[in-house]
Design goal:
Length: 483
């Protein structure tokens, strides 16, 4: 399989073509230090055989934004170095940090925009990016990645909505000016033998935002500047984000956010076509800069297809690898039926958006990491129907039914209400369970695990979703209130 072939990105030799792109975990401590939990999260990907691990966005500047990693000072180097060493000791996975500059956002909905930055502010940002890449090298990372996607500073300069009227805006060249200066500063501080990739948007997916017509040109300039790889994302902007009063706006709540982390209703590999256009354009201009793109690629057949069709050189699998960090090892072993498939429920996104520790809905309750892969397990296994879990609403209750599994002593019923925290609602001996605590206006997602006599649990069944209907009396009441 092309997917499992090694590839080189500058001085980095990837053991295969699977990348886990940056995913904030909210497992850092409040001051941005590496914790045991966050290091465990990335070691887990290394254990699972991922080719390139991009550690979640870490700030290059001093910021007070909760448990997000920092690389803004030399004092953060030892913690980062410890995590990198553990990753390198685990497998031949390569690891880079995603480095980010972001601006202030307030609970009132106010946010700082790039036209508020003075020329001195911009000079400082240029230096901070160069210093952060130098620290990444010092910490032993194999390279670094600039975050120039979504709602953050570099992306706001690249944006077609860039409001500046000086050398940093106006024309496409003006919008690219900051990136050019950042690249030059990195080369001066770190040299050209340390691979530095960049993540940016193939489409902004906002009104008046740029489309692939411009991202092709942006990609060309980034290749000309010598970036080691181009990692493509889409959307994730503040411009169309919903603002819940009293909460900091989250740039993944509008349509552009939907496109960035597409839910179950979107088709698989939906942004591969954009990547293909960009890659073809850059290659035709004589640059072989490797291209990867994310967006619902988690079926091994889709991953292989986007490579063999030439849409990208390596694949970015975010939530698919969060759900199952052993994805690569299972593909290599031909154990496709053992892959825990992400169902794109976006519980993880919701946890991030509400500033909670990011875990997967499909992991056992309370676990901060994916369960160890145990091929020889005494746990019951679902048949090919994955338990055939079904749901229906009966009055004010949700009725769940599933198929009996040989060896099951009990079944644990998992639930996430409004895509929030995951709870085990009950343990039952029969293949039916009734949820009497549902409420119209909420949404509920469920799955079941079959447990053996020693408590070993099967993988999750299929998941089901219910948005309860309003009972007739409440509907009548609402009509009266609205009248
Ligand atoms: C919980 C969560 C956190 C994320 N954090 C980041 C981040 O720090 N930087 C980034 O560039 N993208 C981030 N993303 C976007 C992913 O890298 C990826 O582009 C997106 O999930 C689509 O890929 P997928 O369909 O394979 O999940 C995050 C996504 C999720 C679900
Ligand atoms: S929480 Fe849902 S969307 Fe996120 S990784 Fe798990 S299954 Fe996928």
């Amino acid at each position: 399989m092309k997917l499992l072939e090694p590839m080189a990105i500058g001085s980095m030799s990837l053991p295969n073509r699977v990348m886990v792109p940056a995913m904030v975990t909210r497992l850092a401590d409040e001051d941005g230090w590496v914790t045991q939990d966050i290091a465990d999260r990335y070691v887990r990907y290394a254990k699972g055989g991922v080719g390139l691990i991009v550690v979640e966005a870490m700030a290059i500047h001093h910021s007070n934004s909760g448990p997000l990693l920092r690389i803004s000072d030399d004092r953060f180097i030892p913690g980062l170095a410890g995590m990198v060493e553990r990753i390198h000791d685990t497998s031949d996975s390569k690891v880079v940090p995603q480095i980010i500059h972001f601006m202030k956002v307030a609970r009132s909905g106010w946010r700082q925009t790039i036209d508020m930055l003075s020329l001195e502010d911009i000079d400082r940002i240029v230096e901070q990016f160069g210093d952060a890449v130098a620290r990444a090298r010092e910490a032993g990372f194999d390279g670094a990645e600039l975050h120039s996607a979504h709602a953050y500073t570099l992306a706001s300069f690249l944006s077609r909505r860039n409001p500046r009227t000086d050398d940093y805006g106006g024309t496409l060249e003006g919008r690219l000016h900051l990136i050019g200066r950042v690249r030059e500063n990195i080369l001066r501080k770190v040299g050209d033998d340390f691979p530095v990739g960049i993540r940016f948007l193939s489409e902004e997916f906002i009104k008046d935002g740029y489309t692939v017509n411009e991202s092709k040109l942006i990609a060309l300039r980034l290749a000309q500047l010598g970036f080691a790889y181009l990692s493509l994302s889409v959307g994730g902007k503040f411009e169309d984000a919903e603002h819940v009063p009293g909460q900091v706006p989250y740039p993944y709540t509008g349509y552009s956010g939907d496109r960035c982390m597409p839910g179950a209703w979107y088709p698989p590999a939906l942004h591969a076509g954009l990547a293909g256009e960009i890659k073809a354009f850059v290659n035709a201009k004589g640059y072989a800069t490797p291209v990867a793109a994310a967006g619902k690629i988690s079926d091994p057949a889709d991953a292989e297809r986007v490579l063999t069709e030439g849409a990208m050189d390596f694949v970015a699998i975010a939530r698919g690898l969060l759900a199952d960090p052993d994805w690569v090892n299972k593909v290599r072993a031909g154990q496709l039926d053992r892959i825990i498939r992400c169902d794109y429920c976006n519980v993880c996104k919701h946890l991030d958006g509400t500033h909670k520790k990011v875990v997967c809905f499909l992991w056992p309750k309370g676990d901060l990491q994916a369960p160890a892969d145990d091929a020889v397990t005494t746990a019951p296994a679902w048949g090919s129907d994955k338990g055939n879990l079904k749901i229906r609403q009966e009055g004010g209750a949700a009725v769940l039914t599933w198929t009996k599994t040989p060896g099951a002593a009990r079944y644990d019923v998992y639930r996430a209400a409004d895509d929030g925290e995951v709870t085990v609602e009950d343990a039952v001996k029969v293949t039916r369970w009734v949820d009497n605590t549902i409420m119209a206006g909420m949404s509920y997602r469920y799955y079941v695990r079959a447990c053996g006599p020693t408590g070993d649990a099967s993988p999750p069944s299929n998941t089901v979703h219910l948005a309860p209907e309003m009972p007739a009396d409440a509907t009548a009441g609402r009509a009266r209130t609205e009248a």
